[in-house]
Design goal:
The chain has about 260 residues and is an alpha/beta fold. Helices cover about 45% and strands about 15% of the residues. It has eight helices and seven strands.
Length: about 260
């Protein structure tokens, strides 16, 4: 159980982000949600209960929205003094195609959402999570309360996929940002983890522009594919580990998936 933790989740209006929100609440961690679609967030808040969730709607790549998100966590669930200690960097989008055949008009938006937004949240979260930790000793009080930044990447951020290489390049970039940030924050007792799912069935495929028949073929070949709840359970497992233990990089695939 994650009672006593305060969580923030971006990209929470659907798919993996929604599933993570539900799982965190089930584990007794209050959540501040973020996504662009305020109506979807309001529906989720109404379902899960205002005592457990609230939200800040807006663009996760806007530093002002990130500040509002983290402030809301402190004010609503932290009594005005305690910041979120479980930050899930999930907001992202896909794009069908490679450098050669993807839509170049979408490249900047892709990188802004998948890389710049993640960097802003990681930066602001890190500042708050380390504000009281100039030094950390091996037997210090930090061991009593884990602090986590958990980033949702992708299998194609590690294993090249020609049919989505532009999207994959953003996840390659995210992988390097996470590892560099882990090295900076580990000495202060803050865990930075990367979760890299493979095929997950959600609205991601249609938004990214993939042909439904193509995805049906993928499921026929390697299915059953992952569900958002599978990723959510892994996220809560990482966060529930003792503070001395860090599960830093996990690649999650459907059992029958061979590539990528």
């Amino acid at each position: 159980m994650l009672k006593g933790r305060i969580a923030v989740v971006t990209g929470a209006s659907a798919g993996i982000g929604e599933a993570i929100t539900r799982e965190l609440v089930a584990q007794n961690a209050p959540v501040v949600m973020n996504a662009r679609r305020a109506d979807r967030l309001e529906g989720l808040r109404a379902e899960l209960g205002a005592e457990d969730v609230c939200f800040v709607a807006g663009d996760a790549a806007d530093p002002a929205i990130i500040t509002q998100l983290l402030d809301r966590a402190r004010e609503t669930f932290g009594g005005g003094t305690h910041d979120a200690d479980l930050v899930v960097v999930n907001a992202g989008r896909g794009l069908k195609g490679s450098v050669l055949d993807s839509d170049p008009a979408q490249w900047e938006s892709l990188f802004r959402t998948n890389v710049i937004a993640a960097a802003h949240l990681m930066r602001q979260a890190a500042a708050r999570l380390t504000a009281d930790r100039s030094t950390v000793t091996q037997d210090g009080p930090w061991l009593k309360q884990p602090r986590d930044i958990i980033v949702i990447g992708s299998v194609v951020g590690r294993h090249l996929s020609p049919f989505s290489s532009m999207y994959g390049s953003t996840k390659f970039a995210l992988h390097s940002l996470v590892e560099a940030t882990r090295r900076e924050l580990a000495p202060k007792g803050v865990r930075v983890s990367l979760v890299e799912p493979a095929f997950v069935k959600s609205e991601f495929q249609s938004v990214a522009g993939y042909d439904p028949k193509w995805f049906d073929g993928v499921q026929e070949r390697i299915g059953p594919v992952l569900e958002p709840a599978d990723v959510a359970r892994l996220v809560t497992h990482i966060a529930s580990l003792p503070a001395r233990v860090h599960l830093g990089d996990v690649l999650l695939r459907p059992t029958r998936q061979d590539y990528p």
